[in-house]
Amino acid sequence: MKPKSLLALGVVAAVCPAALAGTVGPDVIVGDMPSTRFWGSSGGINSYSIGTTSCNIGDAELDWFEFSNRHPVISQNVYRIANDRFMQIGQGWLKHGFAALEGSLCSPCINPAPGTETLDPGCSDPYGSFLNGGQSRLGPKSDINPVTGAYSWPHTARGQTGNSIYKRIQVPASDLQVAGAQYFIASHYVTPDEPAFGNDLNNSSYRRVNVSGNNLQPTGSTQREKYAVEAWSDSNPDVTLSLVDIPGDGRFIVASLAIDNGDGTWRYEYAVQNYNSHRSAGAFRVPVPAGVNVSAIGFHDIDNHSGEIYDNTDWSSSTAGNQVAWSTQDFESNPNANALRWDHVYSFWFTADAGPEDTSGQIDIFMPGDIKDAGMTLVAPSGPACVADVTTNNTNPGDAGYGVADGEVTIADLAYFVEQWVAGNGAVADVTTNNANPGDAGYGVADGQVTISDLTYFVEQWVAGCP
Asked: What predicted TM-score, i.e. pTM, was given to this entire model?
């Protein structure tokens, strides 16, 4: 058993400059992730564990009873940003807490109660990476209702051990060998005595790591009370985040990013984190206006392992109904389908020939309940520009409205375009790739030259009136 006092270990604990937050009730956060441990490899999979130090920033004791369902469980995950894409590349089973020390990482720990069965207000508790990798105390995420913090005791597979990768964070070795990538670790504490006080939405933190051989070396500081996907938005201010709260359930975070490919197309990237929704997500939907062409649709999830009950079948995608949609099996067909479960991040992407705008996406909730779906703001393709709408109607050359689209296609648009085409004004008259015919891949894409093909294409669109 761990000694109660850090002083008994000869540890000098750092004191945070911020004072104890004093939220009502127990409130556990991840105060630090000071270390990681590499345990070995098997079949191209590396295994790790993460050291975590928790802090109780609330004003009441936090339960930490080992031989019951009244202690925290601790998740451990690994993420990567590469080529503007955020992905979860590793996850482990949950460490079940077994004793609480009384340190002063986040604030002074003053007059803690005796014993190891509570973490007192203002105090911190360290678990080293060795302890958090101990297989006998690792249990599956499927045991936990993350909304209530409830789980059965003893937990599934308690006491069971295996080879070096069993139950621990599993990361394909190839995922750690991507040039120019950034890597992150994250942890999330879930405990049954917080939800009643509403203190369960700040229990995760992340920290950057450097890959050195098979080792993950923490660098910088732990980003306290931040969702894992915030590592993406913190590193790229163009990433948009939306919080999605399901009444009576939990929270999702949806991150989105549009990248201009410089060739008339954009890549759309999404990362959806299920922070603590028990009901989970069964589909993710992004609107795509009529007339926008979509290609290179992709999906990435994180595999369950070591006997976890959930399926690992990849989500399927479709483009019907003016949307790109990804989905798994429905609950009625397979309650253990590969839904987006709590403490998982799934990534989605596609390429489109239309630039971005803020619009509304949708998550379909997997488990039955009154709320079937939920919307959020994200970036997605805008409607295609109408090539034939180039000027305000009833204006003449030199008027203020001349050369400004107004949503209507009339003779004024044709007159303006012909004028600009004769003048060789590429900003207006360059509307298609030269030497391309209707139906060719390059038709309707500017190429930097003004030729007869541009006039032909414009007249065609003007006659059609545009979509």
From this structure: 0.82
